[in-house]
Design brief:
Structural class: mainly alpha
Pfam family, one: PP-binding
Keywords: Phosphopantetheine, Phosphoprotein
Organism: Actinomadura fibrosa
Shape: globular
CATH architecture: Orthogonal Bundle
Order of helices and strands: HHHHHH
Number of helices: 6
Domain Carrier: 11-87
Protein name: Acyl carrier protein
Length: 115
Amino acid sequence: MPEASPAAGADLVAPVVHEMVRILAPNPAEVVVPDHRLIHDLGFHSLTLTELAFALEDLFGLDSVTPEQAMLLASVGDVVELIEDAVARSEAHPASPAEVAEYCARYGVERDPRG
């Protein structure tokens, strides 16, 4: 079976990021959209942003986000773009469904297929 290209894997990023944001947001939206601002709309603060960063680093095999990169991440779409770019450059990998399900279970929620 041929291996998926990194570009194809990048298509799988947004639903997982949206799901993790929905789970971890202090003020969660029923459906997360790219324009949601992490701090102003979803209520993230330093501790929950750190928790989100660690979850996404684990799920996607990302290197730690630099402070310079973090300063540019204002919205959910910014986070998705950062990870999609890393996947496209083979610096990260798509999250497996099993890993996402494990994170959801860890927080006592079922995976929302809408992302």
